[in-house]
Specification:
Layout (H helix, E strand, L loop, with lengths): L2 H16 L6 E4 L2 H16 L3 E4 L5 H9 L3 E4 L19 E7 L9 H9 L3 E5 L19 E5 L13 E5 L1 H6 L1 H12 L6 H18 L3 H13 L24 H11 L2 H18 L7 E2 L10 E5 L3 H13 L30 H7 L2 E5 L4 H11 L20
Parallel strand pairs: 2-3, 2-4, 4-5, 5-6
Antiparallel strand pairs: 1-7, 6-7, 8-9, 9-10
Helix pairs in contact: 1-9, 2-3, 2-6, 10-13
């Protein structure tokens, strides 16, 4: 099978799963690569300007803005939606609003989207945490102009470690045909990945697995050496914490094949996550324990967000759960995860986003891709107790009121 055939097969599968048209989907080696091309097309069409976003995100979602010579402008977030509650009064210098579905929480963002439309902003949907799920209106029509999806590391599909997809809403072709054309031209002309990157994508799983099974004392050193020797492709390179990223490219045929085969299990994957989300919701309702973000039990979250009363409690819970062998996400601690020593490069002022700053250190993302027994184990470790017990595997006094 040729690369073109493998790409078309993936796009047709995506279209079928999303009830969209395959011609509106474009593939890339990493979602950040496709996003960079989108922003470059925006710059080419609309000129210099700002992209409204939040700091409660990964640095790899901001770098594409920077490499396109646009400026990120940060809005604070609502703790119940993890998205901006409203736009600033003056958005005349902004081209687009990024709506990120953090942890896979789409919810109802229609009011924010409507406000952005009234201010003539493009809507860019970051669906990296909710693969092939789109914010839709009451008639099931996708709301965003551009939607970004990821098959990468630590995302919904465990069997894919590379790959991204960009969806262009056909409405954009009518609203701004020049921009639609420029984005399309950039995405269809993405070059093939280098031989070295293609090889790293092919050997990523066995190489990473080998490193994971090394003794804890040498694991990190071996991982860093593998990255330095260009044997292992990291989720984020050190230079990506300095506002840069690698040149954009298309996925390899191997990556396309992995995506195609893994998509067959997406529905089952989401059903498992829905069940675990419902279980967490049923167990973590007590305000005494922690503040739970309002989530819809029907949403198959990538991770279940749990907020602790303070950073020390979150740290204690993290150590307990990881010590028990669970993979717990600390997105986004720090903000612009995994952080940068050059906030001026990112145009970020912490005083502009107090809610995001306060949430950053207090949230844990509980895994949702576990068996019922594993989920029950996490719950048992975190449940507050009324009386002290001699059990090192129980998180004592998880809240000051316990």
């Amino acid at each position: 099978m040729s690369y073109i055939e493998s790409s078309l097969r993936v796009r047709r599968s995506i279209a079928k799963l999303t009830d969209t048209d395959a011609d509106d989907w474009f593939l890339c080696m990493k979602a950040r690569f496709g996003l960079a091309e989108v922003y470059r097309a925006i710059h080419d069409t609309l000129g210099a300007g700002a992209i409204l976003t939040t700091p409660y995100t990964c640095i790899t979602s901001i770098n594409p803005i920077l490499v396109a010579d646009l400026t990120p402008s940060y809005l604070d977030i609502d703790p119940t939606t993890l998205s901006p509650t409203a736009l600033p009064a003056d958005t005349s210098q902004a081209h687009a609003l990024v709506i990120q579905h953090t942890f896979g929480l789409i919810g109802d963002k229609s009011a924010l989207i409507s406000q952005a439309r009234m201010q003539q902003l493009l809507i860019i949907e970051d669906s990296a945490h909710c693969l092939l799920r789109l914010a839709r209106d009451s008639s099931e029509t996708p709301l965003a102009d551009i939607s970004v999806h990821s098959f990468g590391v630590e995302k919904i599909l465990q069997g894919t470690k590379f790959g991204g997809a960009i969806y262009l809403n056909p409405r954009l072709k009518i609203a701004n045909p020049e921009l639609h054309t420029r984005i399309t031209q950039r995405l269809v002309k993405l070059p093939a990945p280098t031989t070295a990157l293609s090889l790293r994508a092919r050997i990523y799983r066995p190489t990473n697995s080998l490193i994971q099974h090394l003794p804890r004392g040498i694991k990190d050193s071996v991982r860093q050496l593998a990255i330095k020797l260009h044997v292992l492709e990291p989720a984020i390179y050190p230079y990506e914490q300095e506002g840069r990223q690698a040149p954009s490219c298309a996925p390899s045929q191997f990556v396309n094949q992995r995506i195609y085969h893994q998509l067959a299990g997406l529905a089952e994957n989401y059903e498992q996550r829905k069940a675990n989300v419902a279980t967490y919701q049923a167990q973590f309702r007590s305000e005494k324990f922690s503040q739970l973000y309002p989530t819809n039990s029907a949403e198959p979250l990538l991770a279940f967000p749990l907020k602790f009363n303070d950073a020390a409690l979150a740290d204690k819970a993290y150590e307990l759960l990881t010590g028990a062998g669970f993979f717990i996400r600390r997105w986004y601690h720090p903000l612009l995860y995994p952080g940068t020593q050059y906030p001026q490069i990112y145009h970020y002022d912490a005083t502009d986003c107090p809610t995001a700053e306060s949430l950053s250190a207090c949230v844990l993302g509980l895994p949702t891709d576990l068996t019922p027994e594993q989920t029950a184990k996490i719950i048992s470790l975190l449940q507050p107790v009324e009386k002290p017990v001699q059990n090192s595997e129980t998180l004592q006094n998880i809240s000051p009121n316990a």
